[in-house]
């Protein structure tokens, strides 16, 4: 559907990107690692059109072309099945670049779930914790 398209939204001289690749998981889709926001977005963000040229169709032709071919910009990912694993590429990147929890309760729940996932990962891979074999945890 169109909600799953990564396109510029244009209103006169203002360009805002619809970056649906940032919230696929919320809609039951497998979350991919987001693409970077195009640099050109920053050039037009916050313009209100009161000053300068009003020839927006010419000035914004590259964005209009992307919009007109928006069907080519659809993001197609499979439905999410189960919970993402601790080492899912998206979660690895998310932990590096984002604030994960907004409340102390959320942080406590998340830390517990992460700990359980790490223990599961250690025992599944039969890795060692220090010099000790962790197979006894299973």
UniProtKB/TrEMBL annotation:
Which top-level group of life is the source organism from? Eukaryota
Give the UniProt record's GO annotations in the biological process aspect: meristem maintenance
Taken from the record, one Pfam family name reads: PMD
Q: Describe the location of the Aminotransferase-like plant mobile domain by residue ranges.
A: 3-94
Name of the protein described by the UniProt record: Aminotransferase-like plant mobile domain-containing protein
Q: Which organism is it from?
A: Linum tenue
């Amino acid at each position: 559907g169109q909600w799953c398209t990564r396109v510029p939204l244009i209103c006169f001289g203002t360009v805002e990107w619809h970056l649906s690749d940032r919230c696929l998981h919320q809609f039951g889709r497998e979350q991919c690692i987001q693409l970077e926001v195009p640099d050109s977005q920053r050039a037009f963000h916050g313009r209100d059109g009161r000053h300068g040229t009003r020839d927006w169709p010419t000035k914004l032709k590259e964005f209009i072309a992307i919009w007109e071919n928006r069907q080519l910009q659809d993001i197609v990912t499979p439905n999410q099945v189960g919970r993402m694993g601790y080492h899912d590429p998206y979660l690895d990147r998310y932990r590096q670049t984002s604030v994960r929890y907004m409340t102390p309760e959320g942080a406590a729940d998340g830390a517990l779930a992460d700990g359980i996932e790490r223990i599961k990962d250690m025992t599944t891979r039969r890795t060692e914790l220090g010099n000790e074999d962790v197979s006894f945890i299973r």
